Amino acid sequence: YPSEFLMQKITEDNQIPVHLDVSVSLQYVAGLKGNALVEFFHGNIAEVENEELRHLMWSSVLFYKTPNVEVMACVLLSTKAIYFLLDDSFIHADEHQSDFWSKENSDCENSSFHLSCCFVLKLNDLQSVNVGLFDQYFRITGHSADHIVTCLTRDSYNTHTFIQQLMAVLSLLARTPSPEPVDKDFYSEFGSKNTGKMENYELIHSSRVKFIYPNEEEIGDLAFLVAEKMDGLANLQSLNILLYVLVFQVNCVEGSAQNTSLLQPKTLILTSSDLFLFDEDYISYPLPEFAKEPPKRDKYQLADGRRIRDLDRVLMGYQTYPQALTFVFDDVQNQDLMQNLTLDHFGE
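RE: above sequence
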């Protein structure tokens, strides 16, 4: 340890997504290569001597206690824990989280040091991993509200790779075997099945960590919600969700010195007739076992919706991934103008 292949892989993965801003401290981490990166991990992050760095990934993350603050993080997976190396400005981004992060380092603000805070989730504390629709994100759940983190990879390949690496590392953990199942009688075996609700697909790893994947009902619920927004529940049978993808909506701020653009996280859903943007809660659902009450907001909240037939043109940027798309719609005041004219013209 570390092997040549691992060094090369970690160096290749150590790249900040170009569309997201990070602090100087995280830029320093992104500039490390090969041996320097492994030495940095052992010298500054690792908690025990004999743990090995197995995987590195840059991703936006959300914490259960601060569901409205999406922050860039360098996610490091070792044989002992998952480390989230965060921008220090995150601590001051939300005044409601003083209990969540200790502020011991606040006296260093004016020094020449660039601080990062590191959130640690030990693999022994890991209870479940919920994979989001179409592998666009995943949620890691520990034993309390402080230990729930969602990684918004917005990339099925990154999600898949991290889950594979996590399963491999969990296989190395020595955990006490589960107790033998108690023999159930006929009534308890079949009586509990009549809840009328299909559970999500669960894969229970040998380390007893649950990996939970969405089932078809989740897409069905989403289709029902979309149809409701279209005011066309009659069309539910013919409604197909063609695309579900996590995106950023670009809002230009023209008053500033440079015309900066603000990126707002959105969920884009494309059907055969409409294009929708939703504000989605990626961290609160499904409800953790210790949750006493439902979250304050719904999982999906409609931000914008347009008919495809009103789409005039799509402008594509020339840059490589991530691609910028501009959808230009005909701005007709009365959307059903043509339909009404036709009805009037031909009478009954």
